[in-house]
Each structure stands twice: as structure tokens, then as C-alpha cells.
């Protein structure tokens, strides 16, 4: 995002003057900046409870944003309890969203706009189990043994110690065919996408899944990459449709565990994707964001193993350890290594050397495997608990997708997603409605659903959070 994106909305809707200070200084996507500005306006009382917000289209036009960015921000704020959306009467500031009468200082939040009582938003691992002691031991060993040159300007490929460790780990655990020379360290999947597209290493239009991470879509939009949605079902994206997409020679997929709907790409679709990339002279981008977390069987290996010259494999620590470390990696086809390095520049500007060396030691000493094993067991138990609870209390609400990952998607009866999101807002249960993940140009039928993250709540908060979740689900269709 550029600094020029400081914008004030003037007269936006038919009945509303909205003065929003969209200051990107706080960082994040456009959606994050807009969300912050709206929360701030509500908190300060500039947007009073009951105030109607402008329709997506007019606010988007006023602010120079994509309509979808505004729609997703409204949905997010509704899920958090700041806004309510009602069929026919638009989106309004929630009746309870009052500013505090006497602000006590910068920390003050409106009494009824506290943080959610239960936070089941997807995205976070169990950050409380970050292995501090083992990480510290690795950091100490790494610093004691690093050569002096490690503290120089930094190699844009990443430290050789880390690339060696990753090559071994990814090959052993994910079936990735990697040499240290084809790995480039970066700060995460988002950074990898920026390098690939802003650096014009890969060019659009890009096929993406009809449901995906909105943050990645806005990042691609910012890099002026047109995305073309592929339909998907319980077996992942319909990659057999790729040859029919005119001018498309790149596709971004989440094969191990479709994000967020949860299917695993079935074998013939994996083959179809690779065959298409070969025939089109194109490339598949494989986002393996949670590939280690499969519970019903051994994880299926990465698609990259089928054809390393036509697949860019993307991974990071964000689900397995912490999204705050900002460490990730790309395993590249040989011919893309140099272009990516050119896009990165002469020095390592993103991934700090101490974290890289620490991670190398953490992997080589077996601590990473141990941590993944431990958290896998923990997440699996949590998922099982959620599935069992739903079977008992809301058998008409089915979790979809394979048993994997840090979130589940609950299929809701058709037409109920919006009212469930409103009930969530009222009960201060933070969850992500599925609509927020849908590509604006998707043509497949929309599904009603909730994306529920179960990894992050503390143990003592999980039962109450799941109880509260059951409380916002619609009654069974027959009313029984
Ligand atoms: C679909 C998807 N891909 C990738 C990532 C990881 O992104 P990053 O490595 O930029 O933190 C996430 C979130 O953790 C995700 O949900």
C-alpha cells in the first residue's frame, strides 16, 4: 500500500456524511485500514448507534476502494458487533455500540463495544504454546556458532544453514523436491506473492479458487493482477477447467486443504493442474499454508513433488509456529530463481538473520517436528470436540472438508448466514462468515457457512466459546 492512500470520504450515501480518516500509517491491507477507521469513528461517537452506513458501492466509489473490500469490512465489523446488517434496511451502527460517556484516556473503549466475549476467528495458531525455551536454546546455539559473515548485509536467497534445513525438512515431511539452491527465504506467503507479482516474475491473469483469503486478493489487486475464479467442491478446485481460461498461465491453489472450505485436491485434479501448467508453459503456485496438519491420515504430499519445474511451493511459519516471526520460503523452478532474486534486491531486507539461524537450528535439532506433533495433537482434539458437540447439539449444521487444519467450515442451512452473523454480533461471538472469503466474480452457487478457528482460544475458554457458537446457530429446519 502506498502512502498516497490517505483519503477522506465526503458525502457518501443518500443520508450520511461520513468523514473517515483512512490513514495507512497503522499498516495492513485496505480492508484493515478501513476497518480501523470505522471502528474509530464509532468509538469516538462520530458514527452514532443506529446510523445507517452508505451502501458498499457508494462508499467504495468515494474512497477509491473495491466494492468487495467495503463489503468484507462491513461483514467483519458486523461479526465483531460494531455493525448490524438487516435485509432491506442496509447496514447500521449496532444499537449497543456507544462511545464511553467519559473517555478515560486512549485505552478507553465503548462499554458495549468491548472485544468479543469469544474469539473463534480463523487465522491464528495457539500462540500461547510458542516453544519459548526451545526457541531460546536454538537462538543461543545459532548465535554462538554463526560465522562472522552471517552478520553482514545478508544474502537475498536466505542463510544457507536455513535453506539446507528446509530442503531436508520439506522433502521428508511434505514430499517437496528441493535443493538449497532452489529455495528463497522470505517473510511469508504474502511476501512471496508480492515478490512474484510486483516483481513481474509471474504475470496475470491468475486463476484462483472461488473461495480464498481476501487479504491475498487485495494484495494481488494492488499489484494489478486480475484474478479469475475457479469453481470448487469438496475435492478442491476444479483444475480440469484451467485449459478453458483464456490467457491464464498461472494458478494459485491450496491443494492440501482448500482455504477455507477444506477439501483436499483429489489425485486426478492434481495431475490435471500439473499437465495444464506443462502444456500452457505456465506455473502453479502451491500455497501449503497448513500442510502438516492433517488428522485422519498422513498428510498428502505437496503437488510440487509431481513437477518441480512447473510448481512454486509456498510455505511459512504462520500456522505452525507464529505469524509474528514473519518467516517463509519459496521452492522455485530453476528458471525462476534468478528473477525472484532480482525482485528481492541485492540484500536481505525482510528476514532477519538471527531468526533464520535460529529456525535452522530449531529444525535440525528436531524441535520443529516436536512442536508440530504436539500442536497437531492439540488441534485434532479440538476439532474432534467441535464435531462431536455439533453432532449432539446442532446435527443439521455439518462441518465440511477433510479433518485438517486450524479452522473448520460449518455448512449452514441456505439463507441463514446473515442472521447467524447478526446473532454472533449480538452475543459477541467473533466468527468469520463464509461470504467474506468469496471471490467477487465467482459464478458457482454461494454457500452459507461459518469459518470457525479453534486453535487460538485458551483451554479454559474453548468450552464456553463452543457453547456460545452453538447458541448462535439456526434451529433445525423442522423446528425440533
Ligand atoms: C490461505 C493462507 N495462505 C497463507 C497463509 C500464511 O500467510 P503468511 O505466510 O503471509 O503469514 C495464511 C495465513 O496464515 C492463509 O490463511
Explained architecture:
With 480 residues, this protein is of the alpha/beta class. It has three domains: 91 residues, Arc Repressor Mutant, subunit A (Orthogonal Bundle), CATH 1.10.10; 112 residues, Aspartate Aminotransferase, domain 1 (Alpha-Beta Complex), CATH 3.90.1150.10; 219 residues, 3-Layer(aba) Sandwich (Aspartate Aminotransferase, domain 2), CATH 3.40.640. Helices cover 36% and strands 15% of the residues. It contains 13 helices and 21 strands. The strands form seven sheets. A seven-stranded mixed β-sheet has the order 8-16-15-14-13-9-10, with helices on both faces. Helix 2 crosses helix 3, helix 3 packs across helix 12 and helix 5 crosses helix 10. The longest helix has 27 residues. The protein is globular, with a radius of gyration of 23 Å. The chain starts with 6 loop residues before the first strand and ends in an 8-residue tail after the last helix. The site of pyridoxal-5'-phosphate (PLP) has 13 residues, from helix 6.
Amino acid at each position: 500500500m502506498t502512502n498516497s492512500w490517505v483519503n477522506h470520504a465526503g458525502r457518501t450515501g443518500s443520508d450520511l456524511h461520513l468523514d473517515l480518516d483512512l490513514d495507512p500509517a497503522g499498516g495492513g491491507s485496505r480492508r484493515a485500514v478501513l476497518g480501523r477507521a470505522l471502528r474509530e469513528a464509532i468509538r469516538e461517537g462520530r458514527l452514532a448507534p443506529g446510523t445507517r452506513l452508505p451502501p458498499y458501492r457508494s462508499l467504495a466509489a468515494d474512497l477509491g476502494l473495491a466494492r468487495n473490500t467495503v463489503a468484507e469490512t462491513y461483514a467483519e465489523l458486523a461479526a465483531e458487533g460494531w455493525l448490524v446488517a438487516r435485509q432491506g434496511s442496509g447496514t447500521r451502527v449496532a444499537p449497543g455500540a456507544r462511545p464511553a460517556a467519559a473517555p478515560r484516556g486512549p485505552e478507553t473503549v465503548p462499554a458495549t463495544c468491548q472485544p468479543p466475549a469469544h474469539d473463534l476467528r480463523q487465522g491464528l495458531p495457539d500462540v500461547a504454546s510458542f516453544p519459548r525455551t526451545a526457541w531460546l536454546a536454538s537462538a543461543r546455539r545459532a548465535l554462538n556458532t554463526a560465522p562472522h559473515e552471517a552478520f553482514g548485509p545478508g544474502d537475498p536467497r536466505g542463510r544457507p544453514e536455513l535453506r539446507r534445513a528446509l530442503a531436508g525438512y520439506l522433502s521428508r515431511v511434505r514430499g517437496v523436491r528441493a535443493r538449497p539452491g532452489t529455495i528463497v527465504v522470505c517473510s511469508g506467503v504474502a511476501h512471496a506473492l508480492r515478490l512474484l507479482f510486483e516483481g513481474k516474475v509471474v504475470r496475470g491473469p491468475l486463476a484462483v479458487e472461488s473461495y480464498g483469503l481476501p487479504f491475498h486478493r487485495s494484495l494481488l489487486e494492488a499489484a494489478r493482477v486480475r484474478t479469475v475464479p475457479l469453481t470448487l467442491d469438496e475435492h478442491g478446485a476444479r483444475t480440469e477447467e484451467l485449459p478453458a481460461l483464456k490467457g491464464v498461465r498461472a494458478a494459485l491453489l491450496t491443494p492440501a486443504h482448500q482455504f477455507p472450505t477444506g477439501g483436499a485436491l483429489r489425485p486426478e485434479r492434481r495431475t490435471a493442474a500439473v499437465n495444464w501448467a506443462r502444456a500452457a508453459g505456465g506455473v502453479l503456485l502451491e500455497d501449503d499454508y497448513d500442510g502438516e496438519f492433517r488428522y485422519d491420515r498422513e498428510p498428502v504430499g505437496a503437488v510440487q513433488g509431481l513437477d518441480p519445474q512447473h510448481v512454486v511451493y509456498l510455505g511459512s511459519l504462520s500456522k505452525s509456529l507464529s505469524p509474528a516471526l514473519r518467516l517463509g520460503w519459496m521452492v522455485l523452478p530453476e528458471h525462476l530463481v534468478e528473477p525472484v532474486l532480482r525482485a528481492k534486491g541485492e540484500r536481505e531486507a525482510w528476514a532477519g538473520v538471527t531468526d533464520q539461524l535460529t529456525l535452522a537450528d530449531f529444525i535440525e535439532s528436531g524441535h520443529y517436528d516436536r512442536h508440530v506433533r504436539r500442536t497437531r495433537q492439540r488441534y485434532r482434539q479440538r476439532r474432534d470436540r467441535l464435531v462431536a458437540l455439533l453432532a449432539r447439539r446442532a446435527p443439521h449444521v455439518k462441518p465440511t472438508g477433510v479433518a485438517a487444519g486450524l479452522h473448520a467450515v460449518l455448512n449452514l442451512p441456505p439463507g441463514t448466514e446473515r442472521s447467524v452473523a447478526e446473532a454472533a454480533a449480538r452475543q459477541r461471538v467473533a466468527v468469520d462468515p463464509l461470504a467474506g472469503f468469496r471471490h467477487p466474480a465467482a459464478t458457482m452457487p454461494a454457500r452459507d457457512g461459518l469459518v470457525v478457528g479453534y486453535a487460538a482460544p485458551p483451554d479454559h475458554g474453548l468450552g464456553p466459546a463452543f457453547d456460545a457458537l452453538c447458541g448462535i446457530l439456526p434451529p433445525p429446519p423442522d423446528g425440533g
